[in-house]
Amino acid sequence: MSNYDEVDFFEALDLIEDPYPYFDYLRAKGPAVYLPKHNVVAVTGYKEGVDVLRDANTFSSINAATGPIPPLPFKPEGDDITEQLNKFRQDMPFGSMLVTQDPPDHTRSRSLLTRLFTPKRLQENEEFIRVIAEKLTQNFVARGKFEAVSDYAHPMATLTIADLLGVPAGDHEKFLPLFGPLPGQIGGDVDLENNPMMEVGMHFYNYIEERRREPKEDVMTELALAKFPDGELPDLTEIVGHAATIFGAGQDTTVRLIVAMLKNVAEKPELQEQLRNDYSLIPAFTEEVLRLDGPTKAHFRMAKTKAKVGDLEVAPGTTIMLMQSAMRRDPEIFENPNELRLDRKNNMQAQLAFGKGIHMCLGAPLARAEAKIALQTIFNRTSSIAIDESQHGPAGARHYEYEKNYTQRALCAVHLLCTEK
Fold this sequence. Notes:
Layout: H1 20-29, E1 32-34, E2 40-43, H2 46-53, E3 59-60, H3 82-88, H4 105-113, H5 119-140, E4 145-147, H6 148-164, H7 172-175, H8 196-213, H9 219-224, H10 236-267, H11 269-277, H12 282-293, E5 299-303, E6 307-309, E7 312-314, E8 319-322, H13 324-327, H14 347-350, H15 364-381, E9 382-387, H16 389-392, E10 415-420
Parallel strand pairs: 2-8
Antiparallel strand pairs: 1-2, 3-5, 4-10, 5-8, 6-7, 9-10
């Protein structure tokens, strides 16, 4: 693509496989710039983006999932549109979900879910991850090849989040086909009625309704009976919605991370050997993959009042697109930002893949544990993995298909060859 001046980022299929030249083009214009369409300010600067993420009083998360599409169901009026946003929240995509909530609702909702991510629960879940990873690798290493999404990352992430949420073990297999499309699909999101997440929600409705009638000593009962800090029991549909959201989020981003990690080690034999020889480097490698090729490409905020983003004055109702894939490569923060370096300092805090501010991802420790175990288990069972050139082409002429999505960087498939130990 030669003319970036007029490109519509939300429709540009040419930017899907390699968006980074476009991000560099925007960065050259400044850390925050207006785009030509949709009343959007794109932020590529790290500091400028973090300032927005930390200011929940000025910037609403109501449009976090899909940004300017569809457009606002109202015309912004006055110097503060908070009341308008509250009035029309139910008409906005995902408007009642945790990811789009603002305080005080977000604070109350998040308090319901923190018990799922205690050190004790995460340790129990980690044991489950190890068992699942071992079982999955046994299924494909003898074949000498596997597809990273469908054979490994997707079932691993799906079963892991199902276990964390307390889905009965006998029902785990029901959830494997329920892998919904990501918000932000170019060409329009799938209607909720046709989205597999609707079926996920129905399963959780039945579980939680049953546990409220007949409590058991299990994780699902803890979730069903979780109360707000003031002692109020949430409406059944509200806790079901949060559970389904956590399920979907626990699938999507973790799958993409594991697949990106496997692609990287398969493409770089020297790096693969280095990691195989020293597992202690895997956490640093995970952080660099999150920084360089993390699942979230862009997410959004909306100015509630007149505000400044970098040096730009923005009006109420302006969409702020936080281009994480660009922010994580800001040369003002990261030396040689396009290089994968295992010796970066403080990358866990700086790489932004799990957000900043009040919406910092609750599941970050879980995702990191899954990624580490996924790679270690593959290494334990194989002596090498490599890109299947019959599927992706030879080195120097590779082709990978990414989902046609403006919010997520999501590989559709990565075919790998492996040699069993």
